[in-house]
Structure formats: structure tokens, C-alpha cells
Design brief:
Distance between the termini: 35 Å
Oligomer: single chain
Strand order of the largest sheet: 9-6-5-13-24
Bound molecules: iron/sulfur cluster
Number of helices: 21
Shape: elongated
Helix content: 25-40%
Structural class: alpha/beta
Strand content: 15-25%
Number of domains: 4
Number of strands: 32
Radius of gyration: 31 Å
CATH class of the largest domain: Alpha Beta
Largest sheet: 5 strands, parallel
CATH architecture of the largest domain: 3-Layer(bba) Sandwich
């Protein structure tokens, strides 16, 4: 497309009171020879938009630079189909944060104009990546309540579903329950188990194909075209799918590890899973002698919230014990239940259920730490408690003890399995003549378990050490999303949750799975860049097969051919641009975002001999909105900074730093999200990777004879926006104390 540029300057929202817009226009007309440059009192008003539209239809303008508000404002207004649109943020970054009418303010606005025009010059219309054929079927792994609800969600919306269940029947743990918790207001009375009805619906749904006693053997491919092998009844069946919902469910924590609570020592110490079986079979009887248990004690957090077992709250067990206490009372109104808790946790509306249980005089709820469970002389059990609300130690006698055991995701690889796998792995390596490293840690996601992905990056979902085997799904923004595009985690593989929570989660995941196949078909990315039709394009002629892009892609979108040349599995790509940042050869670029674009933007800035010029590379997910938030508050921002948005700080290519500093820029601050176990990066490790790359900065800057302190990375979350002015001023002072950048003179 031959570009015809048009620059439009808004004079509203205090812009004309702060900068000389006529002088600003000269940057476009004189410096950049832009043929069409107009201003308007309120560009986003109907007449302002008509001005632009008129030039598009009348003058053939197809590349529009809007010098006005932040690109995060008035987004819809400034969409002009078929045109490239760039936004120069002179409202938030200039008019609302700078002293009106000063030289510095004018210089800043003019630089934003230069940056906007240069960006537009280096931007090209997207050509979406389209698969020859997009399969829109949804594969659901797990036939428990989560898997079945997900399957129904997608199937009722008209999508074909393949449901794979490991056991011989659908229903999972939920089907084994005697009764279920109330699922609607007033959240008081127990309900009959409705899972049987759900099983019937799933089994008879024309859009759902159910495999029971079946396991995934392999999943190869990518969103829109997964090839799935399902092992069933000793044979292997092949299927195709467009997206995957992982609803493999949970397993109870191994109560054999809870002998300090009497499990395994006394048959009358049972788990909450056993209690469901007992209640389903009739009277509440105890295993040792089959006598009715008239005093039943429930010990909460049995293994949960305990550093030696499960460090987290399993979330469902308080409610389960309250429910089971109600069983005790329903079966025999003269029986007593004791619920012994560290803290009672009944999230959401279930507080109402808790209250209804509290009103039952036959259920005693008491806070305390269980110090031991011992047998009485007559075969009953004593439970000793300390730290009670009464302030004294107490002892309770019961006929039976129920341990509220916690929840572990079925995606968790057991430490023993991991160990065994490593031995086999080393043996194999030895056989093949490799050199096994006995100390080499084998990451759990590299051990085949549930998904068995045929991905270079490993067969399972990578997680966090502190996620305890639950799928790492960015907790701030993206429930269900995993680090493998097109694969959505739902229910208790994502976090511990009760049945109602799992059902809600399941529907969310099925909507995501549908969005994924629809977006894939049209060549769009999925969340968080859901509007994006660009994708990374690689100039393979210059690729040295260094594998950095393959290793750093957070979503496993890059594989290698036999010669080690990388190739993108494009529908797995989330368009984060991490690969663009990783490539030392600078051969990965997007149509509207490239190494050359950012370098050219830096080079386009005016660098006077006197005074500081600083660049702020701002992640568009947190840092850029934080800067806009400062503007909303009309806070003053140091005028030496020019902020340039990037998709993620993982885009940082060291070439940009070299280009900026060799242009005479005095320093560069990199504003990215927090990293580590509680990371906030939308693309998992973007700012962390940028920080690692900065480790090599010494070499880059050494060649230029410049101090590495001229570049600083700051981890920032959006709510810390008010700290930014001080952070920026401190950095400006630090750089100001150094000698001026000698490249200013060139
Ligand atoms: S690093 Fe990001 S942009 Fe590059 S292939 Fe992976 S997901 Fe796509
Ligand atoms: S990082 Fe660049 S040079 Fe290295 S393998 Fe990827 S594309 Fe090739």
C-alpha cells in the first residue's frame, strides 16, 4: 500500500492552552513533509472525526497520525477501517502533566509528534495468519462436574465436544456425594445430588462424544488444528479439535501422611471422602464395629494450611464438613457433631449456609489447634485441642473422627513419580551414549501426565513452584488461560474449589475455548491482544539457529525443524513480542511493531546539546496506564522523559539501547511488571527476561564507553502509579550526575 499521511492535531482538553499547536504542526509539515496536517478544537467530536474521514475519502489519506489523547482513550472513535492509525499522546503526556507554555513542554510535544510520525512510517497493515482449515471442536479432558459442565456449555452453544474420562463412568467425585451443598438462595438446606441428571444430559447430547475408560495418548498441533490420540479399550482412536479444556480434577490428599491425627492407627479415624460413602449407604456407622456413630468430630485443615503437607487452603473442606455435620444430624436428630477448625472459611453466599449450621444446637463449632487424637479405653476417641477461644486446652470424646482432607490437582506430578522418571530418563540417555547429569532437575511439566502434548517445551503445562501443581493461570487478569495457548484450565486443576465454583469456572473456560477457535479462524490473537491480526515474521535467511526465541517464547509457540531452524506454530502465538526481543540477529518483526520501528523512533527525537534527554520504555499493560493515571490526577512528570510503549518489556532488544544511547540519549528507564513467583506480567516472564538481558548490557555499553547505570529497570504495578514521579526524578538525578552523553555531539 502506498502511504498517504495525514496528521491531525487536537486543540481541546487543554492541549492548545499548553502547547503552540501551530509550531507543533511544523514538525509534521516541515520536518516530515506530511502533505495533510490539520487541527481541530475537539478531534473526537463528530465534526473532528468528519474532518479526518473527509480526507480519507477525498484526499486518499490512508495513514493517520492523531496527536491528541492517549491511545487508551477514545479508542473506538479513532478507528478508520483500512487505514493505519497512530496516536501521539500529547494530552496525558504533555497537556495534563506539564507546565503550560514552557520551552520544555513545547519540545516534549514536538518529540511526541516525531515519535508518532516515525511509528506510522514504519507500520504496515496486518495480513492475518489464516489456517487452511480451522477445526472448531472442543476437547474436554475430565468427566467430573467441571468437565461435564464445560462440555455442556460448548455443546449447547453449538460446538462439537469430545469428552475424555479416565474412569469407567462420568461424574467424578461429585457423583459420589450423598448430598450436595445448596446451589441457590437462601443457601441453607442440603440438596439431593443432581450430578446424575448432568451425566444423563451429557450422555444424550448430540454434540458430545464421550469416551470413558479413556486417556489422552498424545496431543499434537496447535489451536484450530489439534491432532488428538485417545487410548480407549486397548485401542487408539484419532480425533481433531480446535481448543482444549483441561478439567482433570483433583485427588484427596493422602491421609496416610496424617498419622499424627490418628489416620491409619485407628479405623474410626476416616476421611471426608469415606464419610460420603458411609452416609450414602444409610446410617452413620463407624468402621471398627459397625455401631452407629452418635458423636462425630470433624478435624478441619487436615493436611491443608500446613507447611509439612499442603501449604494452601483447600477451600472446599470447611463446607464439606459443615455439610457432613448436617448428615449426622439428619440421620439421627439425637446425634452430635463437633467441627474443630483453625478458621472457618465459607466463601461467598455460603456464609448463609454456615449460619444455618450454626443455628443447629446439635452441631458444635469450635476453634482450636488439634494437638492429638488418641484412643479411649472403650474404643472411642479423644481429640485434644489447644489455643481455643476459651483460652484453655480442651478434650472432646467422639465415636468417630472425620478428617477434612485437602485437595491436590490431578495435574500434580508426585515427587516419587518424578524421581522414577528421572532414573529412567538417565538410563535412556546412558543407553544412547549421552552424558546424564545426575543432578539435573527435571521440571515436572516435562513428565507426561494428563495432556501429553507433543511440544518441544514439554508435555504438560509449566507451572510455578508455589502453584503446587495447579495450572499457572495469571491470577490477576486471565482465569482459565494457561501458558499453552488454546488450552484452558478449569475447576480444581486451576485452584482448589467447591462444586458450585467448579461449575461456574467450567462455563468460563468453555466460553474461552469457543473464543479461541473463532479468533483462530479469523487470524486474530487470543487474550490479551485479542484484536491483533499481526504476527511475528522471521527472516530465516539471517537466523543463526541460536534457539533463543524458541526457549524464551512463554507460550511454546516456536519449535525447530531437524536442522534446528526455528518455526512458529502461529496459532499458538499470543503476539507478545518476546521473540522479537530475544533475537540477537533482529530478524523477528511484526507488521506494526519492529526493531527498526523503535530504533527509528529513538533516532527521530530531538537531542539538544544542553539538557537531559531520557527515554521511558513503558509496558503497555501496566506502566503505560500508570502514566495515564498520573495525568488523570494532573500530577507533574519530569519533562526530560519521552515514553515509548512496548507490548511487553520482554520486547526489549539490546539493539534499542545501543541505538538510543549512540543517538545521544542520556538514559533509559524500563518500566515493566513485577516478576518472580507472584508475577504480574501478562506474558509471564517479560520483565524478568528484560532484566536477564540487561545482564549483557555491560558488553553493549562497554563498546560505546558508556556507564551501564544509564539504563535502569523498574518493576511497577499499576496501583503504584503515584510512586512514578519520584522514581523518574530520582533516575533523572542519577543520570544528571554523570558526564553528558558524548554521542550528543554526533
Ligand atoms: S514469543 Fe510471543 S510473539 Fe513470539 S512466538 Fe512466542 S507468543 Fe508469539
Ligand atoms: S533468536 Fe533469532 S537468530 Fe536465534 S533462532 Fe530465533 S530467529 Fe534465529
Amino acid at each position: 500500500m502506498e502511504k498517504k499521511y495525514g496528521v491531525y492535531i487536537c486543540k481541546g482538553c487543554s492541549i492548545a492552552d499548553t502547547v503552540d499547536t501551530e509550531k507543533l504542526a511544523e514538525v509534521a509539515t516541515k520536518e516530515h513533509q506530511i502533505p495533510v496536517c490539520k487541527s481541530h478544537d475537539a478531534l473526537c467530536s463528530p465534526s473532528g472525526l468528519d474532518l479526518i474521514k473527509g480526507d480519507i475519502s477525498g484526499e486518499g489519506v490512508n495513514t493517520v497520525i492523531v496527536a491528541a489523547c492517549s491511545p487508551r482513550a477514545k479508542h473506538r472513535e479513532f478507528i478508520f477501517p483500512g487505514c493505519i492509525v497512530e496516536r501521539a499522546n500529547i494530552r496525558e503526556f504533555v497537556a495534563w502533566t506539564q507546565e503550560p507554555g514552557t520551552e520544555d513542554t513545547q519540545a516534549l510535544a514536538e518529540d511526541y509528534m516525531r515519535l508518532g510520525i516515525t511509528k506510522a512510517k514504519n507500520s504496515f497493515p496486518p495480513e492475518p495468519f489464516l489456517l487452511e482449515e480451522t477445526n472448531k471442536d472442543v476437547l474436554v479432558i475430565g468427566g467430573g462436574i467441571t468437565g461435564m459442565t464445560s462440555a455442556l456449555g460448548a455443546a449447547d452453544a453449538g460446538y462439537k465436544v469430545i469428552l475424555v474420562e479416565k474412569s469407567g463412568e462420568l461424574g467424578g467425585w461429585a457423583a459420589k456425594m450423598h448430598k450436595q451443598l445448596p446451589q441457590s438462595y437462601p443457601f441453607e438446606a442440603l440438596e439431593e445430588n443432581t450430578v446424575k441428571r448432568t451425566i444423563d444430559k451429557v450422555s444424550s447430547h448430540s454434540n458430545i462424544k464421550v469416551y470413558t475408560s479413556a486417556e489422552i495418548e498424545k496431543i499434537a498441533g496447535f489451536p484450530g488444528q489439534y491432532d488428538v490420540s485417545i487410548k480407549t479399550n486397548g485401542t487408539s482412536e484419532q480425533a481433531k479439535a480446535g481448543s482444549v479444556i483441561l478439567a482433570a480434577g483433583w485427588r484427596p490428599y493422602d491421609a496416610n501422611k496424617l498419622d499424627h491425627l490418628g489416620y491409619g492407627k485407628n479405623p474410626n479415624v476416616i476421611t471426608n471422602v469415606q464419610m460420603e460413602e458411609i452416609a450414602s449407604s444409610g446410617r452413620i456407622t463407624r468402621p471398627s464395629d459397625g455401631k452407629e456413630a452418635k458423636r462425630v468430630a470433624f478435624i478441619q485443615c487436615a493436611g491443608s494450611r500446613d507447611a509439612a503437607h499442603l501449604p494452601y487452603c483447600s477451600s472446599y473442606c470447611c463446607l464439606t464438613s459443615l455439610k457432613q455435620a448436617a448428615y449426622v444430624r439428619e440421620k439421627n436428630p439425637n446425634a452430635m457433631a463437633y467441627v474443630l477448625y483453625k478458621d472457618m472459611r465459607t466463601p461467598g453466599q455460603y456464609e448463609l449456609f454456615y449460619k444455618s449450621i450454626q443455628n443447629d444446637p446439635g452441631i458444635m463449632l469450635t476453634k482450636g489447634e488439634v494437638t492429638g487424637v488418641s484412643e479411649t479405653q472403650n474404643g472411642n476417641l479423644f481429640i485434644d485441642l489447644k489455643d481455643t477461644l476459651l483460652g484453655e486446652n480442651i478434650r472432646i470424646e467422639a465415636d468417630m473422627v472425620v478428617l477434612a482432607t485437602g485437595m491436590e490437582p490431578n495435574t500434580k506430578i508426585d515427587a516419587d513419580v518424578l524421581k522414577e522418571w528421572k532414573v529412567k530418563f538417565d538410563e535412556k540417555l546412558k543407553e544412547s551414549g549421552g552424558k546424564p547429569d545426575p543432578n539435573a532437575p527435571l521440571e515436572p511439566h516435562k513428565v507426561p501426565n494428563v495432556l501429553k502434548l507433543e511440544y518441544r517445551q514439554g508435555p504438560e503445562l509449566p507451572g510455578l513452584e508455589e502453584a503446587y501443581g495447579f495450572a499457572d493461570s495469571n491470577y490477576i487478569c486471565f482465569q482459565y488461560e494457561t501458558r499453552r495457548t488454546g488450552i484452558f484450565a478449569a475447576g480444581s486443576v486451576r485452584q482448589p474449589m467447591h462444586m458450585l465454583g467448579s461449575m461456574e469456572d467450567a462455563l468460563g473456560a468453555s466460553m474461552k475455548a469457543i473464543q479461541c477457535v473463532e479468533a483462530t479462524e479469523k487470524g486474530y490473537s487470543i487474550h490479551p491482544r485479542a484484536w491483533d491480526q499481526t504476527y511475528p515474521e522471521v527472516n530465516l535467511q539471517k537466523c543463526t539457529s541460536c534457539k533463543r526465541c524458541t526457549e524464551e517464547c512463554p507460550f511454546g509457540a516456536i519449535e525447530e525443524d531437524a536442522k534446528g531452524t526455528p518455526f512458529h506454530k502461529m496459532t499458538r502465538c499470543r503476539r507478545c513480542g518476546t521473540c522479537l526481543g530475544s533475537c540477537p540477529e533482529r530478524v523477528i518483526n511484526f507488521k506494526d511493531f519492529s526493531i527498526n520501528m523503535i530504533s527509528s523512533m529513538f533516532k527521530s527525537m530531538d537531542v539538544p546539546e544542553e539538557g537531559l534527554r531520557l527515554i521511558g520504555l513503558a509496558c503497555e499493560n501496566d506502566a503505560y496506564p500508570a502514566l495515564d493515571a498520573l495525568a488523570m490526577n494532573r500530577d507533574r512528570v519530569n519533562p526530560a522523559f519521552r515514553f515509548v510503549p512496548v507490548r511487553c518489556l520482554g520486547n526489549l532488544n539490546l539493539a534499542w539501547i545501543a541505538d538510543a544511547l549512540s543517538r545521544g540519549i542520556d538514559g533509559m528507564i524500563l518500566l515493566g511488571c513485577k516478576f518472580g513467583e507472584n508475577y504480574q506480567c501478562h506474558f509471564v516472564r517479560g520483565s524478568e527476561l528484560a532484566s536477564e538481558r540487561l545482564g549483557k548490557l555491560q558488553e553493549t555499553l562497554g563498546r560505546l564507553m558508556l556507564e551501564p547505570e544509564r539504563v535502569k529497570l523498574v518493576q511497577l504495578s499499576i496501583q503504584d502509579y503515584d510512586k512514578l514521579p519520584e522514581i523518574l526524578n530520582d533516575f533523572s538525578e542519577e543520570v544528571g550526575e554523570m558526564e553528558p552523553n558524548p554521542f550528543k555531539e554526533f
